[in-house]
Write a structure and sequence with these properties.
Strand content: 25-35%
Mean pLDDT: 87
Helix content: 10-25%
Distance between the termini: 25 Å
Order of helices and strands: EEEEHEEHEEHEHEEEHEEEEH
Low-confidence stretches: 257-263
Structural class: alpha/beta
CATH superfamily of the largest domain: ATPase, nucleotide binding domain
Number of domains: 3
CATH class of the largest domain: Alpha Beta
């Protein structure tokens, strides 16, 4: 294939499954069960991600020799937290050391085996996200082999927020829904001030969701925003609907993917997330 015509593929790495999408043709490859190809899945930092990624990409070799790859990772495999930067911090090294200490305090295990990512700054609140180092190393190996060029690796919530940034209110709860959990981020003045990930077996109903968010508002010690911005795998609900005192905002518009348990694989939705290559 000509280098000028490298095809773009999108790989969705869900909590339980994985799917590859030919973006140009909008053609999905068969979904594969992740557990069959991921040794040590119970410990994501030490699991061997190489066989899983190779297995799902092998499906494309039947028709294609190479391509660009965008990988979207379920938030089940990511870790999120806020870092409050104290006065006197003047280097990236110090910030990273603080973030690693905070990771251990929150998750009860050292940050060894995790890659920390953030828009680092020396004041205020910093949203930090971590992905397994071995997952990112497996992606780097693909690029070194010259068959695939990995153009982007992002967790689901970050991909969604980057994709729809222009339509996300500056002051709002932003809820990124997945098949087995939701990441809730509180935005004030366009900056993330608070984050919490919830696990669930089904997408919560409106009243359940509000009870969850009200509890976090009490923990954050702030006021409830006027808007709720919903992204990801959503129930069928109309833009502009009011949920208690908040106006519902749906930036995905016509691209919104409704999720029906037992009928749709999470990884299919992940592979279909558009844009957000940064």
């Amino acid at each position: 294939m000509s280098r000028s015509r490298r095809k773009l593929y999108s790989l969705g790495l869900g909590a339980l499954d994985m799917t590859l999408l030919d973006v140009e043709r909008k053609r999905l490859q068969p979904t594969l069960p992740l557990a069959e190809y991921l040794p040590g899945a119970g410990a994501p930092a030490s699991a061997d991600w190489g066989p899983a990624i190779s297995a799902v990409l092998a499906q494309a070799h039947k028709t294609q020799d190479s391509g660009d790859l965008m990988l979207t990772v379920s938030d089940a495999w990511a870790r999120y937290w806020m870092l409050s930067v104290p006065e006197g911090i003047g280097s990236l090294e110090e910030l990273r050391a603080l973030a690693r200490a905070r990771f251990e305090a929150l998750f009860g295990t050292p940050a060894d085996g995790w890659t920390l990512m953030a828009e680092w700054r020396t004041r205020g609140q910093v949203l930090v996200c971590a992905l397994p180092e071995r997952l990112l190393a497996a992606c780097e190996t693909l690029g070194e082999e010259g068959v695939w060029r990995v153009v982007s690796v992002q967790p689901h919530a970050i991909r969604l927020m980057n994709s729809h940034r222009a339509r996300i209110p500056d002051d709002a709860w932003v809820c990124c829904f997945g098949a087995q959990g939701m990441l809730a981020l509180l935005l004030q003045g366009g900056a993330v001030q608070y984050v919490r990930r919830f696990r669930y077996q089904r997408v919560p109903e409106a009243d359940e969701l509000m009870d969850m968010l009200d509890g976090e508002i009490l923990r954050a010690g702030t006021d409830t925003p006027m808007k709720l911005c919903a992204l990801g795998i959503l129930p069928e609900v109309a833009h502009g609907t009011r949920i208690r005192d908040m106006k519902l905002v749906l930036p995905q518009g016509d691209d919104m993917q409704a999720f029906r348990p037992g009928m749709s694989a999470e990884s299919v939705m992940l592979a279909r997330v558009r844009g957000g290559l940064a």
